[in-house]
Amino acid sequence: QKEVEQDPGPLSVPEGAIVSLNCTYSNSAFQYFMWYRQYSRKGPELLMYTYSSGNKEDGRFTAQVDKSSKYISLFIRDSQPSDSATYLCAMKDTGRRALTFGSGTRLQVQP
Amino acid sequence: EAEVAQSPRYKITEKSQAVAFWCDPISGHATLYWYRQILGQGPELLVQFQDESVVDDSQLPKDRFSAERLKGVDSTLKIQPAELGDSAMYLCASTLGSQETQYFGPGTRLLVL
Q1: Are residues A43 and B105, on separate chains, in Cβ contact within 8 Å?
Q2: Dihedral, CA atoms, B1, B75, B62, B58, nearest 10 degrees?
Q3: What is the pLDDT of residue A8?
Q4: From CA B104, how far away is CA B111, in angstroms rounded?
Q5: pLDDT, tens only, B59-70
Q6: Fewer beta carbons under 10 A from the terminal one: N or C of chain A?
Q7: Do the chains contact at A46 and B91, CB–CB below 8 Å?
Q8: Angle at CA of residue B58, ends A101 and A72, nearest 5°
Q9: Chain A positions in Cβ-Cβ contact with residue B101 (cut-off 8 Å)
Q10: Taking the alpha carbons of B37, B89, B23, B99 in that order, is the dihedral positive or negative?
């Protein structure tokens, strides 16, 4: 079983919809949680970064971390066709500096 | 805005040939990572450098892969000989000191025929 599980999708929504992306994890030592956006044939781009539990909002994006359930979410409000990409969750503990990634969820926002 | 640079962007090679990828991290970033991303999967760490020293190469297939960061700035990842299963995106990332945010380059897409 992988340390980080993420539904690969694809997830197709109409423009303007609220999108919910999720990851579960098994390693209770993870303390730092990130969401990256990756367009086709490009490198990952950091969207959101959260330490420990709680919520963080940035524009149309909200990240939530529930450490008790080992569950993290990314919400995208008023989704746009330009949001069409693969969304990767990533996390790490305080000791190891490298990230452990989910497999990514492919999102398609239909105009 | 400072970015991580990688070259080449695309590489096609035949199996058993040698290939090399180059990465130039954001200026001043002491920690450099090489990840491999197979299509449809998330990136997986190959090697991590702190300045010129390797701090984690536990997932690097050392019989065919090598990595160096001689002056603690740019880095080279080499595969010799390449195998069909090495076809993937090779990503370089860097961080500034103790900060946790990793910045990724555009990647090198390798196809082994």
Answers
A1: yes
A2: -50
A3: 83
A4: 20
A5: 999 999 999 998
A6: N
A7: no
A8: 15
A9: 34, 46, 49
A10: negative
